[in-house]
Design goal:
The chain is an alpha/beta fold and 236 residues long. The chain has eight helices and seven strands; from the N terminus they run αααααβββαβααβββ. A hairpin with an 8-residue loop joins strand 2 and strand 3.
Amino acid sequence: MIRLPASAHKKHIEVLTQGLVLPLPPISNGHLKLIADILSDAFMQVKQQDRVTVEDGDESTVSGLLHSTLGYLIDSDLLVGQVFNNVSRGEETYNFDGSKHEKRPDLSLYLTGRTIRFPLLVEAKLIDHAKQKTVKLYGDNGIRRFITGDYGWASQEAFMLAYVRGKETPSGTLAPHLKQVGQTDPTHYQLIMIQEPLQRLSESLAVSQHHRPFTYIHVTPPHSPGAITLWHLWLR
């Protein structure tokens, strides 16, 4: 494997971010709640059309159906078309310092009125104990990607989806896990807070906030990305 010098990584990031001030401006809570509603409605359509896959298929297949449904809604639903310009699946992107070129978040939501260079990212995981898909994997292979700067490093918010095949909820499963790990290793999830449940989607939705220890390499100090706010939407 050819290893590029650090200067080449920095140049990639400089070109990608030219003309932008990072982190990008925050997305309002009202806007994010609307996006959560759209994602939830799209998932319900997927479930109505293919319940077998939702209840027994792998994570990639469910995300593929969700991606296709969102694309249909962008074309057919006036409100959804006003919120999103496009949605892509598994699109390659850089990590925060350009040293990793092939990071592939599950879904990239291109919001109207926002730069197309940094879509709102969505990472999805199964919660299915029969298949050893636990909240620990959700955290270690999902949440931590946003903390370390693999995903969402230019933004202040992102979404985590869980396709739940049991009785687990953000308040009953996710919040205790984050708090318990935080007691033994505060640096693992860098947890600032978790708020759950949120009003409109009750037990399905929670919001957590996490410190991000990395710094931007393409600008002079101050170059901290600040905290990342993760919206956790658990769907069943």
